[in-house]
Q: What sequence folds into this?
């Protein structure tokens, strides 16, 4: 009996120590936080349900997903985006059969009969850039569409706000909102080289004091299913809808024999832009 009593006391001590270490997270459930004493960003973890904690969880969920389809409702465009292990993009716009494919440091534009007619039968133009450089073709477009870039900025914001639960395309989602300056948005992107960060800054609007508002809608797996970014250059909200997250998607470069290599020449605008 003394041995059993000592063992039970030791187990109880461990349980109490674990509860103390969890602190306010002991009652966290699968839904959004409803209390008013959410932990600060410095204390938030991906396992608590404070706004900061949920955004950290979303960052991990999307990092593991690595790819998704996207739609730009206002632009009449859609495609696929990949963010790990390298970035990749396929961009299609309604009203044109021309496509854009971006694979790491190279971009391919064309794929339509008109391009082939102009280029002696080759359907694609290839544009090259330097890794991490601002001259990576269409890098700002890729970084604006990349959900990990938006979530990285969101996790760096000081006071993300829980807006509430909503219905989005017949799916129950949780809506979060935050504001931060363009400089802070860009500075958070330490995974990008300095030249690429500057290209992103210019695309969002480099005016001193420009402030962005991010609205993020997360599903019950903490995956980002819709992003709206207002305040950027052009004044119009940029809304991106994500689907088939972590789905069986693939992206390949066009055949070299069907490609006209433009080297580091400046690429033309995005198809239909």
A:
């Amino acid at each position: 009996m003394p041995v059993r009593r000592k063992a039970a006391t030791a187990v109880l001590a461990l349980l109490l120590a674990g509860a103390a270490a969890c602190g306010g997270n002991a009652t966290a459930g699968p839904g959004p936080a409803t209390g008013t004493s959410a932990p600060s960003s410095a204390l938030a973890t991906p396992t608590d349900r404070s706004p900061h904690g949920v955004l950290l969880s979303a960052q991990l969920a999307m990092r593991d997903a690595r790819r998704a389809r996207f739609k730009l409702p206002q632009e009449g465009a859609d495609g696929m985006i990949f963010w790990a292990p390298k970035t990749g993009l396929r961009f299609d716009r309604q009203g044109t059969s021309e496509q854009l494919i971006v694979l790491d440091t190279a971009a391919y534009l064309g794929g339509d009969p008109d391009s082939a007619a102009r280029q002696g039968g080759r359907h694609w133009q290839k544009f090259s850039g330097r890794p991490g450089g601002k001259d990576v073709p269409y890098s700002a477009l890729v970084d604006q569409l990349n959900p990990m870039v938006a979530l990285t900025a969101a996790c760096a914001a000081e006071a993300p706000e829980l807006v509430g639960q909503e219905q989005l395309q017949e799916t129950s989602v949780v809506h979060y909102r935050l504001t931060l300056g363009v400089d802070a948005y860009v500075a958070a992107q330490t995974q990008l080289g300095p030249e690429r960060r500057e290209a992103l800054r210019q695309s969002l609007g480099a005016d001193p004091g420009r402030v962005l508002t991010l609205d993020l809608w997360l599903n019950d797996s903490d995956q980002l299913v819709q992003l709206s970014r207002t305040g950027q250059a052009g004044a119009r909200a940029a809304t991106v809808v994500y689907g088939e997250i972590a789905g069986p998607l693939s992206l390949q470069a066009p055949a070299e024999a069907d490609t006209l290599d433009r080297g580091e020449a400046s690429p033309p605008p995005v198809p239909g832009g």
Notes: The first helix runs from residue 2 to 22. The longest strand covers residues 171-181. DSSP finds seven helices and twelve strands in the chain. The helical segments are 2-22, 51-65, 113-118, 139-145, 147-156, 182-187, 194-204.
